[in-house]
Amino acid sequence: MSGGQTIRWSRMSLEELQSFWTEEIEPDLERSGVDLTERPSYRQVADAGYSGIAYALREHHDMSLTDFLATVGYEEPGSSASYRWGIDDETTIAELESYLETLERRRQLATSTVQTKQSRLATYARIYREVHGEADLVDRAADASNESDEIRRALVVFDELNYELGTDASKLRYLSDVSQFYEHLERRAKAAFNPVERIDEEYNWSREEPDNAALTGRQVGRLYDAADSQSEELVVLALCAWGLRRNEVAALHTSQLVLEGEDPHIAFGDERKNGPGTVALIYGTSKLAARIDRLDEDSGWSGYLFPSSRSASGHITGETVQARFQRLAEDAGVRVQGDLPTSKMGRRFWYTTYNQAMKNLRENLDVIAAEQGSSDSSVVMKNYLSEEERRQYRREFMREQLAEVFEG
């Protein structure tokens, strides 16, 4: 049972509810003598102390308990596989079922683990169908000539998941399960490529690490205030406001910068640690432009934002970025768990700030959703805003968060 503790149902994402079901509710039902070979009833769930899940599903996810149970492996009597998966492409359904059977029979994974994977795969397939019309995942991956288009389609699905899921860990688990399904198809010569193989390189998702300490907004503000040159200010901005790695900061070049137009960004090539991509310059472009103007006064300038005449590369090293960052921390009296912060902690600050900005955006859209009579903010995002408008809102809320830190 829930042990008398308050369960904050309304704060859980669908994926978190699914995990809570398999990790907490199912074991309690089993201990209560409920036969889990059949779909449990609402009464059985309520008697075990979990009646709140039905309200949360209805109010925040537009689902009945029956709909939800189908996503965690309980098929309604008389329903078809297409109902359980939420799609109608028979080839994809057959391969998904075959894959899950392989996990259970050959790899001997626990039933609850397989059900959780099924839930994530079903969510991916349903979103794919919603945004692309048909969830013909297998047929499209079977033809190598489709690879570019299919990667683009997969990115659209993960853009949705990136917004809807609450944590980077959740997003990475979804990506892992979907990628493993495509790998299964490749091993059986039913897919010519894996369209999600490198999708994590498109996002700033952070894998959990032990002692994953991050700087606070107040500490970052103190670091920025301690900077007494354009170069030092830019180090703090690049690490904390743009989320760059220290080696990326060290090698920044004007050829990577797009400062004109409505979408200022940094473009990276194949040399980036996690592959190609771009980083939006949501905050601090005026400081960056001022730095370029200052350096451009030197006729012999090579174009690097942090040039070095003593280095064969023409720019400083990542270790130098780290040293400058820690020198600022020393001057500002900033410590994390008693030690000087590392440059990686600036990157982690970016993650936590972005997550807070997305939380603020969802709370803001909840108000709009209520006025529209919608069940939650995701309805507003999907049905009333274009992809460009979503991007604009995300950046506006992130810009507000960063302004509070650097201007507060």
From TrEMBL:
UniProt keyword Nucleotide-binding, yes or no: no
InterPro entries per UniProt: DNA_brk_join_enz, Integrase-like_cat_sf, Integrase_catalytic
Which GO terms are recorded in the biological process aspect for this UniProt protein? DNA integration; DNA recombination
Keywords associated with the record: DNA recombination
Q: Where is the signal peptide?
A: none
Span of domain Tyr recombinase: 210-407
Q: Which SUPFAM superfamilies match?
A: DNA breaking-rejoining enzymes
Which GO molecular-function terms appear in the entry? DNA binding
- On the tree of life, the source organism's domain of life is Archaea
- Which protein are we looking at? Site-specific recombinase XerD
